[in-house]
Amino acid sequence: MRFKYSLQSSLRSLRTHKSRSLLTILGIVIGITSIIMVMSLGQGAQDLILGQVQGMGSKTIIVVPGRQPKGPSDVAQALSDSLKERDFIAISNIANVPTARRVMPIVMGAASAAYGSDTYRLTIFGGGSAMAELFSLTTETGTFFTDEEVRGKQEVAVIGSKVKTELFGDGDAIGERIRIKGRNFRIVGVLTEQGSGSFVNFDEVALMPYTTAQQYVFGIKYFHRLFIEADTEADIARTVADIQVTLRSTHNIDNPDKDDFFVETQADIAERIGTITTALTLFLAAMASISLIVGGIGIMNIMLVSVTERTREIGLRKAIGATYRNILTQFLTEAVVLTSVGGAIGIALGAGLSFIASLILTQVVGSGWHFTFPIQAAVLGFGTAAFVGLIFGIYPARQAAKKSPMEALRYE
Question: Mean of the per-residue pLDDT values for the chain?
Answer without folding.
Answer: 80
